[in-house]
Amino acid sequence: MSDDELDERIREAARAYNAPPETPREEMWARITAARQRGGGAAGQRDSRVLPFRRRWVPWAAAAAAILAVGVGIGRVSVEPESSVWEGPSANATTYRLAAQEHLSQSEAFLTLFRTSLEERTDHRLASASARQLLATSRLLLDSPAATDRAMRLLLEDLELVLAEIAQLSPRSREEDLQLIRDGIERGNMMPRLRTAVPSGAALTQGVL
Amino acid sequence: MSHVQAIDPYAPEPVSDAELIERVLAGDPSAERALYDAHVDRVFRLVYRMAGDLDRAQDWVQETFIRAFQKLGDFRGDSALSTWLCSIAVSVSLNGLRKVKRFREREVALDDAPPMGFTPREADPDLKTRLADAIDGLPDGYRTVFVMHDVEGFTHEEIGRTLGVQPGTSKAQLFRARARLRHVLADFARDRDR
């Protein structure tokens, strides 16, 4: 077979190379629209095949971004201004309450997602990363001078324990570790308490899941 | 059998790319959708050929259009809009492929696993399968030009504008890509001669 003949055979066979299916036009448009509404363009930057838990990164990443934003906000609340005009205790308490509610709302969304991922036996590395961020926010809230509400403190302390356990998860974690976390969430009535602590409509995280 | 195409009197008039761009920049959402509809098939075909995986292709097409909408104000009209979109698509795809390769290399190093091909294929492949493996094994530049020219039918001028190279460079890359493929598939040609 001459080079030309082989080239011709190659060209013919190459038409079947990664032959594309019909364009999933509507599905992609929906995702583009959603990503643009979220103000992000990074949805396609991470390769879904790279991670074993395909397509799971979108809610985790969105949750993590939102958590980070809340953490920054709480950090500002927690730091006493050095020379600014004193606004009085009520302004600080209100800001703290709003930040705490936002954090609890984030935590509820995160734990809901995490419990689902437990069912699906997916990789927990991203969950662990998100838990670390939430954990930092929980500790900021607990350490804040505005943290005077006893019920809120108890809830944050219980949440801190659960988040610390999730944060320590690794690919080598065993089923027993997951069961401990599951028990921790169930035993402390974590989900109902979180939902009760967050007034309906207060969740700024709607859509994260 | 007649091949005369029926004309729909209610069908919207075709809109030029320039007009669409103007409307998109003015914030018209229907124009965004029209622009997407006009170009998504070509972009998707190209990206899918590069990705070889539906999830990945969808992610990269999505990324392509998001970037395009973000940068549309910078589009100067020096080339066709489709060429501009394809250049973004190729850039997104090559970046994505590099990440996949890096990840796999790291994964293999960590797991001490035996080397694996780009895409798993059968043990006793026919020409198409062996060719696919050989194309996967080409360097990115050769593979891109080969896919665009021999698989998707782009001209060297279009490839040059898309990749920002001279048409002659595209021709040279294609020549080398074909030579490599011939080399890899030489035993197939010998078998056929027997």
Characterization of the model:
The complex is a heterodimer of chains A (209) and B (194). Chain A is an all-alpha fold and 209 residues long. Chain A has one domain (58-209). Chain A contains 8 helices and no strands. Chain A has helices at residues 3-14, 25-37, 57-78, 89-120, 125-143, 150-167, 175-187, 190-197. Residues 110-124 of chain B have low confidence and may be disordered. Chain B folds into 2 domains: 15-116, Orthogonal Bundle (Rna Polymerase Sigma Factor, Chain: A); 118-194, Arc Repressor Mutant, subunit A (Orthogonal Bundle). Chain B starts with 16 loop residues before the first helix and ends with a helix. The relative contact order of chain B is 0.09. Chain B has 194 residues and is mainly α. In chain B, helix 2 packs across helix 4 (81-111) and helix 6 (140-151) crosses helix 8. Helix content of chain B is 71%, strand content 0%. Chain B contains 9 helices and no strands. The interface between A and B is large, with 38 and 51 residues.
Determine the fraction of residues in helical runs of chain A and give it as a percent range.
Answer: 55-70%
Q: Please state the CA-atom Rg of chain A, rounded to the nearest Å.
A: 23 Å
Helix content range of chain B: over 70%
State the order of secondary-structure elements of chain B, H for helix, E for strand: HHHHHHHHH
Q: Give average pLDDT of chain B, whole number.
A: 82
* Gross morphology of chain A: elongated
Biggest beta sheet attributes of chain B: none
Number of domains of chain B: 2
* Oligomer class: heterodimer
- Residues in β-strands, percent of chain A: under 5%
Q: What does the overall shape of chain B look like?
A: elongated
Q: What's the CATH H-level homologous superfamily of the largest domain in chain B?
A: RNA polymerase sigma factor, region 2, helix turn helix motif
Helix and strand string of chain A, N-terminal first?
Answer: HHHHHHHH
